[in-house]
Amino acid sequence: MKIARLSLDQGPRFAVVDETTGNYHVLADDPLYAEVKPTGQIVSANEANLVAPMLPRSKVIGFGDNYNRPDYRPDPATVPTTFLKPNTAVVGPNVPIVAPEWSGNIIHEAELAVVISRLCKDVPVERANEVIFGYTVGNDVADGLTQKSDLQWARAKGFDTSCPIGPVVVTDLDISNLEITLAVDGEVKGRGTTADLTRSVPELVALASSMFTLLPGDILLTGAAFPSIPAGPGMEVVCSVEGIGDLRNPVTG
């Protein structure tokens, strides 16, 4: 099932995607807390205004150094680099990524993102799938210069619009070998696959829940399958994950 979130006259509403027609069936309530029950309202694909398919109730947890890549092969026995993005960093498809005045090198990482379904803490690896609601595409945006100069990454990775997600959340997806790409102005600049994850998604959920209490809607960024790609104001970035879709955002400054 693919779940989207639409901007409607009555405010943002969740919807299920009809994969035959591409139309959106508006839901009566938030699917994290209630059964998936359509209201009967249908929005056509060409009229839908998609917003972020999920807003984290508290946080986005990012993991670095989690892919076996030609330029880097992390040790799976070590704890990966871990950082937080505030929920105010999250935006949806087509929303501009706004480069802060102090930024100097806006970089992007296309990633598989995991949406948590319920409150949990210290989840065993073998039960991690019980707390996963679904998967979406994430763009881990950062200012590369600040990331190198600051002792902490809060400013470099946490500014407003630094975490686009979308276009939908997919609740039933085999994530063992999904292609991930990132394109700038229509040209693919990076390509990888989830088959190269160093630590599996269940392992990341277990690790994150050992550090923090996870809340419904919290998002885990699973790491970059290829090196960061620079793209500044005036450019358009498209992050794609096979089986989920394309997350398209312009960059402004």
Structure description:
The protein has two domains: 49 residues, SH3 type barrels (Roll); 192 residues, Fumarylacetoacetase-like, C-terminal domain (Fumarylacetoacetate hydrolase, domain 2). The strands form three sheets. Strands 1, 2, 3, 4, 5, 6, 7, 10, 11, 13 and 16 form an eleven-stranded mixed beta sheet that branches. The protein is globular. The chain has 253 residues and is mainly β. It has three helices and 19 strands. The N and C termini lie far apart (36 Å).
Computed CA radius of gyration, to the nearest angstrom: 17 Å
Tell me the fraction of residues in β-strands, as a range: 35-45%
Number of helices: 3
Name the CATH superfamily assignment of the largest domain.
Fumarylacetoacetase-like, C-terminal domain
Number of strands: 19
Give the mean pLDDT: 96
Output the structural class. mainly beta
- The span between the termini is 36 Å
| Main beta sheet strand tally, sense and closure | 11 strands, mixed
CATH architecture descriptor name of the largest domain = Alpha-Beta Complex
> How many structural domains can be distinguished in the coordinates?
2
Order of helices and strands: EEEEEEEEEEEEHHEEEHEEEE
Shape: globular
DSSP helix fraction: under 10%
- What is the CATH domain class of the largest domain? Alpha Beta
Query: If you consult CATH, what is the topology of the largest domain?
Result: Fumarylacetoacetate hydrolase, domain 2
| Unreliable spans | none
